[in-house]
Task: structure prediction
Amino acid sequence: MAINLKGYRITVLCEDIAQYDFIRAYAKLLGADNRKITQLPAYNNATVLKHYPHAAKSYRKYATQNIVLVVMIDADEKTIQERLREFDEKLDIEKYKLNQNTRFDNEKILIFIPIRNIESWFYFIDTKNTDGETLKGSDEKLISYKNKYPNKDINVNLFAKKLKEEICLNGLPQNAPSSLHHACNEINRLKN
Result:
C-alpha cells in the first residue's frame, strides 16, 4: 500500500532548517499540500525534547482528524535507542520507568533520528556509502558531514526525490544507515 498524505495536516518539530526542508520536501512527494505543513519553533535538540510532550498531547487531542506529527532530532553522539528513551521520558515518566512505549502503535507520531546529523543521510543518498555511521562504543568517531552539505548549497528536494524514487522504491538497501532503516519503520506508522 502506497502512502499518500493528501489531505493531511503535518506538524514538524525539528532542530534546524535542513531537517525541516527535507521533511517538507519528502512529505510533498507523498502528496502533502505545502500549505498544510507547519513547523513548531525549536532551535536545538534540547528545545525539540522540551516541546515534544506538548506537541504529542496536541496531536492526541485532534487524532481523529487527518494529522501527522513528525519529530526529528540529531543523534549527535547518542544511539537511536538513547534518543527514543529521552522522548519516552519527556512524554510519560511512569511508562518510561516501566520501560514501556509511550506512543501507541496507531498514532501517526513519527520520530526520525539521523545518526550524527541529517547530513549523514544526505551523504548516503548522494553516495550510497555509509562511511559516517559507526556503532556507539567503537573506537571510531562518527563522521560529521555538516561542512560537506552547508545549508546554502543543499538541494533537499533532490535528496528527498532520490530517497523516495531511487532508494526506497525497492526497499532500503542493507548498507543504508541504521537511522534510515529506523526512519522507514517510522513511516510505516502512516499505514495504520
Summary: The domain at 9-158+175-191 is CATH 3.40.50 (Rossmann fold). Residues 119 and 145 are 5 Å apart (CA to CA). The longest strand covers residues 67-72. Strands lie at 9-13, 37-40, 67-72, 109-112.
